[in-house]
Amino acid sequence: MTNxxxxxxxxxxxAIGILREAIGKVxxxxxxxxxxxxxxxxxxxxxxxxxxxxxxxxxxxxxxAQCLDLRFSRIQFxxxxxxxxxxxxxxxxxxxxxxxxxxxxxxxxxxxxxxxVLADEINRATPKTQSALLEAMAEHAVTIAGQRLVLxxxxxxxATENPIEMEGxxxxxxxxxxxxxxxxxVPNPSEDELCEVLVRTTGRGPEAPPRVIDRDAVxxxxxxCRDVAVAEPVLRYAARLVRASDPSTGDAPEVARRALRYGAxxxxxxxxxxxxxxxxxxxxxxxxxxxxxxxxAKPALRHRLIRSFEGEAEGTTTDAVIDALLAAVGTRPxxxxxxxxxxxx
Amino acid sequence: MGERERFHPLFEHWAGAVRRRLVARRALTGLAxxxxxxxxxxLVAWKTRHGAxxxxxxxxxxxxxxxxxxxARRKRWSDVDVALWLDDRLETEEAITTAVGLRNQAEDDDxxxxxxxxTAATALAGADEKRARPGVLxxxxxxxxxxxxxxxxxxxxxxxxxxxVAQAPGETKVQISxxxxxxxxxxxxxxxxxxxxxKQRLEKIAKDADKLKADLEKGLEKREALDRIxxxxxxxxxxxxxxxxxxxxxxxEAAVSKMEENDATKEAAKALGDHDLEKMDxxxxxxANAREKRDRDSARKTLExxxxxxxxxxxxxxxxxxxxxxxxxxxxxxxxxxxRDLEKAxxxxxxxxxxxxxxxxxxxxxxxxxxxKKLADAMGKALEKLSxxxxxxxxxxxxxxxxxxxxxxxxxxxxxxxxxxSTPEGQKxxxxxxxxxxxxDDESPESKGQKGLDDAEQGADGAxxxxxGQGPGEKGDGPGQPGQQPGQGENGQGPGQGGGKMPxxxxxxGSGSSNDDGSSGGGHHHDTGTGPHDGKTEPVGGAGxxxxxxxxxxxxxxxxxxxxxxxTPGKTGGTANVQGTxxxxxxxxxxxxxxxxxxxxxxxxxQVRQYFQP
Lengths: 345, 614
Known about the structure:
The complex is a heterodimer.
Chain A: H1 4-24, H2 31-43, E1 47-50, H3 57-68, E2 72-76, H4 83-87, E3 88-92, H5 96-100, E4 105-109, E5 116-120, H6 127-139, E6 141-144, E7 147-150, E8 156-161, H7 174-177, E9 182-185, H8 191-202, H9 215-227, H10 232-244, H11 254-259, E10 260-262, H12 266-282, H13 290-301, E11 306-307, H14 309-314, H15 318-328, H16 334-339
Chain B: H1 3-47, H2 53-56, H3 59-74, H4 79-90, H5 95-102, H6 111-125, H7 129-132, H8 143-156, E1 173-174, H9 180-186, H10 196-218, E2 220-221, H11 222-240, H12 249-261, H13 266-273, H14 277-288, H15 293-312, H16 316-349, H17 354-366, H18 369-384, H19 388-404, H20 411-422, H21 424-438, H22 445-468, E3 501-502, E4 536-537, E5 580-582, E6 585-587, H23 602-611
Parallel strand pairs in B: 3-4
Antiparallel strand pairs in B: 1-2, 5-6
Helix pairs in contact in B: 1-3, 1-4, 1-6, 1-8, 4-5, 5-6, 9-10, 9-22, 10-11, 11-22, 12-13, 12-15, 13-14, 14-16, 14-22, 15-16, 16-18, 16-19, 17-18, 18-21, 19-20, 20-21
């Protein structure tokens, strides 16, 4: 028996596939990055892209915006960027007619009012400006001159930051990082991918990607994501993972106790499950599996783990810690694990 | 039918199958472990020779299986556990687990949940049974058949030999209600004594025997019992030697010298020298019954002289004993003479019976009292059968013999005898006299006393045998008959024969025993060799062990040349004249110097070299 949800599930899977394909026409490789951005889009969270310059972060976001038929705005963060440059401000009305109507000022909306917002090199702006953006990300609304303005949904912020040019930057504080659902690390392309990039970018300019998904489809996707079912053992597994990241608990593995100062909190667990649901949705499933949780563990948790001095000194990355957590925390009860064939994942 | 209704029975079916196999596996694991563990107690039972317990050890396998079932019950998988297992095996990405978690919720509540349940039901419906069910057998289960084989092997293996536990000799307690041998010793109190001092000693021995008998009835440590019996036996043996010992030795030797001067009493002299008064009495018996009167007179005279010499040299007891022996000789002599005269008269009268003739010849040949008594008995019977004519004829013959003279008996006595025979009453009187003669005890008192001591000594031996679980055995005086056990012993001087219960039918173990050093015993002078031949052997204690016992005391005199005393560890090749590879190394029969190559001390090698020097 086929019900409506199952149909919509297949439609969503198809739409995601189409979107991925459309982006693939512009972006060479980076399939994991594209997938993780898809998860963020479906889950309704914001995504922080971290990678070296020139890896296509900005292009990816712009392409995504073009494919989604959503209003796109880009903010290039610089140290002299002011909050008002992001959220907007009141400007004096010069038009006599309008002034006659009694309105001396009118709101000049900033780029934050886009539906897909690219916050390029977010760590180059001052914390004040950063916090203006992050507040909007959390509230989905801004306040300009005492007037609260709700941002139009879907509101999807994709921020980028450059991990190598740290001079003159303002690293995002942990509390602010926590507002991003996922932190996506953009890797260097492989040789084949690089060749393909060279072919595409050194010839005639590529065609603009097609608009494949409209606003309503995105909103439907986000709604369905919340409906994906999660079994209690899977929820418990996510909870155990998050608890194990807390070095003050006995559940934490040795690596976590040594390399971490703080672990992921409740928001991290929420992000983990929500992102896992998005993964299931993108794959056309109505339930979350252990594997989904494992797949989203790194992007959902890596920016929420605060390394200790020892961890930083040893060069232990948060990804390495998460690998250790995944290895240490079992998915199933011990009695069931004992029955599984050796080597089973 | 809704998806939920389809999912539930499917899941229950699978859950049952999974759980049953898990239970079976745990029971098998318990069985295998139980059987494997059962091998250990089975081995212990085998080692400790509790053979009947070995098969019972297999029950541990059953107990293990039951324990496995109990564990399976306690660790029974919940529905979620089963669902997680099925998800893993069927690769359904936790759809079944999610469905199980959501099955109590209405389908209408959430469309997504309905999809999950549907997915799970579809997965279960098309599941591969082999893939989804947990395996029952594990490598550990291979222990079960191996353990069964081991158990069968251990159960069917013969039990090991019982270990020979070295126990201190004589520690065991013995409790015997009737010791016949000790009764004989106790009778010494009523035996004839040479004097008051001996009477007291004999009474003390008898009292000790009574006390030992009473103690044995209550129970006594074996070694103490044997010790006390040995003490009694020593006292009895010492009593046999009291005649002419110590200060009276000179008197005894003087008497022996006198007797040795006469050829007729030489043997008797030797017996006296050995304190064997019984033998001396026998010798005198032979002389008294001899036909030659000259020998008898000579012997009588010698006895008189010997008695006088003994008294003169300070041995009145020896003199008294010899005097008594002389009296006995005269009595026997008179009896023999009377018998021979009557026998001769009967033979001349033609009324002698064949039996009478045979006994008469035996008397001439053997010359012992027993034969004389048999002759008297035979003659008495012959007289009973005489007719009046024959009787008359016999009386005439006797009268004629008395008138002619030449007979050894007194002529007057012969005449009286003839008068008696002339009447039936007289004949009856003569018959009675002959009967009395046949039952007359002519033994000397000293011989009687020594016989009592011999009986007591035999009784002590018997008592020791009873306590030691070993028959006393009769002593032989010559080579044993075929089938007899040659003995060498404390008391026997030749191969003895087992009259009682022999411990082991082995050469060298008879009634006697050897001295501790392996040399022969001191010998005994009272070997009758008439013991019964109905001895039997006891079961050997401890399979594979042969034990020998030695009662003889160590001779204090130095050992004979070429013998050694004590124990030496024997092993194959331990001597230089036997080919082997023992302590002395490889040495051939002629390689006397083979010991030079061994690592034994130089001094010892020199000794060995000298010993084996041709």
